[in-house]
Design a protein that fits this description.
The complex is a heterodimer of chains A (about 250) and B (about 625). Helix content of chain A is about 35%, strand content about 15%. Chain A is built from eight helices and seven strands, in the order E-E-H-E-E-E-E-E-H-H-H-H-H-H-H. Chain A has a five-stranded mixed beta sheet. In chain A, strand 1 and strand 2 (about 20-30) form a beta hairpin. The relative contact order of chain A is 0.14. Chain B is α+β, with helices and mostly antiparallel strands. Among the domains of chain B are: about 265-400, Succinate dehydrogenase/fumarate reductase flavoprotein, catalytic domain (Flavocytochrome C3, Chain A, domain 1, Alpha-Beta Complex); about 475-625, Methane Monooxygenase Hydroxylase, Chain G, domain 1, CATH 1.20.58.100. Chain B contains 17 helices and 19 strands. In chain B, helix 10 runs antiparallel to helix 11. Chain B is globular, with a radius of gyration of 24 Å. Classes of the chains: A alpha+beta (about 250), B alpha+beta (about 625). At the A-B interface, helix 1, helix 2 and helix 3 of A face helix 3, helix 5, helix 6, helix 11 and helix 12 of B.
């Protein structure tokens, strides 16, 4: 059992998108190694509130790594040092007493800052609006087993569908590209027969919307794959490019 | 007030068809004149908004999250039930219906449950068509697994992320309607009050969580799909943002709140580790397919699990419930865990834990098979605890997970307030006193895809579209009331954070109204909650301003509502002088410690009517009739 730690935090504070921001230093004392990173921030916030200062704004909801709300760059890495782990599932046992930790928001033109560590990721929703689905009305579906899907295809589709839409891929990319996010949806539906009728339209529309939102292009640095909490492979970007090219002008 | 559940006539199997046939369709050209507000974008809300949009209604969809995709349905792990009988193991609509009624300890409405079982098969078809990547076998057909409270294998799943995949399917359907222009979505927007005009629900007041702006929205009907109230216990498996505000505000406007004391404590969660813990994490019930639950036979046995020989272990679920074994329903498995821990045989820090052991399954099936079935759950366990569940057994303990109670609704899912519909976990209707595993996803999607689209028409047919406008006095007045409430929260300027009050409330609720309740504990809670509420309004501190992004203010508003709602929950628990499902009153148990129902006096739905804060709410009873299943004592032995 490791004992409690004292940590120095350098946290990005910015009251709104219109004001300028800066790093502010805080001291987190008696941090238990069993706490999650966000619970550590909760304690810092409780102290700030006691001092009548505005707590650090950050997002979280499920706190079990599936909703995709949390969005912190910790020591320069989206979601922090543990692979395959969202910030909410990152536990303090991965840090040591006396560490200095920097905490920043996702930084990307397409994710405008709202406050402190909270950004606006609605660009992701707008990309999904234009084609991230199978067009099927409620009530018109045939029996589920009329359409066999080879297990390997289903598994591959699932691997891509596991995306939680957190945006770490964008935050990690030097071009702020959303290719891993977009590729994940295109790949998920490409590997299933249900997705086939709209393949071309989907790929074209989603890629075009991604460009319009101001995300950059992919230059194969593969940082996105390294930070993705769900381990989504950059193979989905290859597939996105294939689908887009096959879709024609 | 006479509660009319409006259950159609005829045999159970015919009721839904009878109901549908009696509906007069709305002219497609008129549908777009109707505006429907849907609050919440989880499985129930997203599927309802999308389906109503497809039908041609104008829909406004609201969620407090930054995206509809983050609603807490996303976190459901294990699966969704459907009576497909693809396993050839004798499943049927009747069997699913029967299991659900029995699982709910005979405290749910037969007609609703039967319809749910009927709808279950369509849900799977719909989700497959949407491209939900369900688990499949090598032959390409859909795979199933078993869940608690059932002896057939009817649970469809997508690894340990079934809720995520189903929600993303519904989110896709919603997105399609947004693109088509039938649905307008308002993310980061939280409902603050329900607006009533001439006794009908006609709109809501919302707060824009980024700017703090308050706006009123008028509609022809309001649909609440805002989930449960588990976080009234502070620690639960729910998301940090889950709250009771929408349904509680509706209650204060006249909607009846039914069976609030029915709360589900899930048996397999990771035990609490420290005082700063913000939530508890569920380990899917599906793990009980292959994991065996045990504690040492000897009290206070501190040895490591591998040093405890087979003969010194008590596989208490297998011992007490030989026919269901580790797949006993949740309420029973939770209570059994509490009993062995109370007996001094719990494991881990504080003795608040039991083992969930996969050693035998790994030996029988190999690590690879276990990894394929539960890999992400094992990873999650390892991340949180720092222990490797492939090598040592998991330690688990019960935690608040789901709430069966909710706003009272009739067969058509409309509350007693005309024009107010309530779906999914937010209503009370289908799970009685205990929900079976993999049935929440089923109910949310049945309500949203297949029930509401038929039933909302029966109300709208009698309503002139567009009659409510948000500049009417009722809307202006409601908006002012919300503003006053927020100003009041901001102006206390006390010393304690909203979160600290929430923790205190949670402690009262868990200690006095948790897994075991007594008359004395409930009376203590009913004495302590108003005191805490008074302290809150005297000493809460909300930093920042109203007209900005202010998570402290959001939290304060939610805690204020929990502080009122908690009293209702405890009152309901006090008045229900029997044990049933998740509601366990220690005074009412059998000789071997099982829940003892009192069908003569409590075979009813308790629906509470608000009469003002500090006033005792009025109890209305809807008697429950069991025509196709005889009332019986549950046995999983």
């Amino acid at each position: 059992m490791t004992s409690d730690m004292n940590l120095t935090l350098k946290v990005w504070r910015q009251s709104s998108s219109k004001s300028s921001g800066q790093f502010v230093t805080y001291h987190a004392k008696a941090v238990s190694p069993d706490m999650s990173f966000l619970e550590m921030l909760d304690v810092v916030n409780e102290e700030l509130l006691q001092k009548n200062e505005a707590p650090i704004a950050f997002e979280s909801d499920c706190r079990e790594g599936i909703c995709g709300a949390c969005s912190l760059v910790i020591n320069g890495v989206a979601h922090g040092p543990e692979r395959g782990t969202t910030a909410c599932q990152l536990h303090m046992r991965h840090f040591k007493n006396g560490d200095t930790i920097t905490v920043e928001p996702w930084r990307a033109k397409a994710f405008p800052l709202i406050k402190d560590l909270v950004v606006d990721r609605s660009a992701f929703d707008r990309i999904m609006h234009v084609g991230g689905y199978v067009s099927v009305n409620t009530g018109s579906a045939p029996d589920g087993n009329t359409l066999p899907v080879p297990k390997d295809d289903a598994d591959w589709a699932f691997d891509a569908a596991a995306c939680i839409g957190c945006g770490a891929c964008v935050a990690a990319c030097k071009n702020a590209s959303a290719s891993l996010f977009v590729g994940a949806k295109i790949s998920h539906l490409r590997h299933l027969p249900q997705g086939a009728p709209e393949r071309k339209r989907r790929a074209k529309a989603m890629v075009m919307q991604m460009d319009q939102e101001g995300f950059g292009s992919c230059t194969n640095t593969l940082e996105c794959e390294a930070v993705c909490p769900k381990g989504i492979s950059t193979r989905v970007i290859v597939e996105m490019n294939q689908e887009y090219m096959c879709a024609g002008g | 007030m006479q509660l009319d559940s409006k259950i159609p006539s005829g045999s159970l199997a015919e009721k839904w068809d009878t109901y549908k046939n009696e509906q007069k369709p709305i002219n497609p050209a008129n549908k777009r004149k109707y505006h429907v507000i849907v609050v919440g974008t989880g499985l129930a809300g997203a599927s309802a908004a999308a389906s109503l949009g497809e039908l041609g209604f104008r829909v406004s969809s609201f969620c407090f999250q930054d995206s509809p995709r983050r609603a807490h349905s996303i976190a459901a792990q294990g699966g969704i039930n459907a009576a497909k009988n693809y396993r050839n193991d004798g499943d049927s609509v009747e069997r699913l219906f029967h299991d659900t009624i029995k699982g709910g300890d005979f405290r749910s409405r037969e007609a609703n449950v039967h319809r749910l079982a009927q709808m279950s098969v369509h849900i799977i078809d719909q989700c497959v068509a949407q491209g939900v990547p369900f688990a499949r076998e090598y032959g390409g057909l859909l795979d199933n697994r078993s869940f608690g409270g059932s002896l057939v294998s009817r649970t469809f799943y997508a690894r340990g992320q079934t809720g995520q995949q189903l929600l993303l399917g519904a989110y896709g359907a919603l997105n399609r309607q947004i693109q088509a222009g039938t649905v307008k979505v308002y993310p980061r927007t939280e409902m603050q009050d329900l607006v009533m005009v001439d006794g009908h629900a006609k709109g809501i007041v919302v707060r824009d969580l980024v700017t703090g702006e308050l706006t009123a929205h008028a509609a022809d009907a309001v649909v609440l799909a805002t989930g449960g109230y588990g976080p009234v216990f502070y620690l639960s498996t729910n998301a940090i943002g889950c709250n009771v505000t929408a349904t509680y505000k509706a209650y204060k406007q006249g909607a009846l709140f039914a069976n609030p004391c029915y709360t589900q404590i899930h048996p397999t969660c990771i035990p609490q580790h420290g005082e700063h813990q913000s939530k508890l994490t569920l380990m899917s019930e599906s793990l009980r397919n292959d994991g065996r639950v045990w504690v040492p036979k000897q009290k206070g046995d501190q040895r490591a699990p591998e040093q405890i020989a087979e003969g010194e272990r008590d596989y208490y679920l297998e011992r007490k419930y030989p026919s269901y074994g580790n797949l006993a329903p949740r309420d029973i498995a939770s209570r059994a865990a509490k009993q062995v821990c109370d007996d001094g045989r719990g494991v881990g820090p504080g003795g608040l834990g039991v083992y969930l052991d996969f050693a035998e399954a790994i030996k029988r099936l190999g690590v690879d098979v276990i990894k394929a079935r539960y890999g992400n759950l094992f990873d999650m366990y390892a991340k949180i605890t720092g222990e490797n569940p492939y090598q040592a057994p998991m330690r688990i303990y019960p935690a608040v997970h789901y709430t069966m109670g909710g706003l009272w609704v009739d067969y058509g899912l409309m509350s007693n307030v005309p024009g107010l519909f309530v779906l999914g976990e937010a209503n009370f209707s289908d799970h009685g006193a205990n929900r079976l595993g993999a049935s929440a996803l089923m109910q949310g999607l049945a309500d949203g895809y297949f029930v509401l689209p038929y039933t909302i028409g029966s109300y709208l047919n009698g309503v002139k579209p567009g009659s409510a406008r948000n500049d009417q006095p009722a809307f202006v007045h409601a908006r002012e009331g919300v503003a006053d409430n927020l100003n009041r929260l901001m102006s206390v300027q006390g010393k304690q954070s909203p979160d600290s009050f929430h923790r205190k409330l949670g402690k009262i609720m868990w200690d006095d109204c948790g897994m075991a309740r007594t008359e004395a504990s409930l009376q203590r809670a009913l004495r302590d909650i108003p005191v805490l509420r008074e302290e809150f309004w005297r000493d809460v501190r909300v930093t920042g301003k109203q007209d900005e992004f202010n998570p402290v203010l959001e939290k304060a508003g939610r805690v204020a509502d929990f502080l009122e709602f908690a009293e209702l929950l405890c009152l309901d628990a006090l008045e229900r002088k029997e044990s049933c499902g998740g509601h366990f009153r220690e005074e009412f148990q059998t000789d071997d410690g099982e829940a003892k129902r009192d069908d003569a006096n409590f075979c009813h739905v308790s629906a509470w009517e608000f009469k003002g804060l500090g006033q005792k709410p009025v109890l209305h009873k809807e008697p429950l009739h069991f025509e196709s299943i005889a009332l019986a004592t549950r046995s999983y032995k």
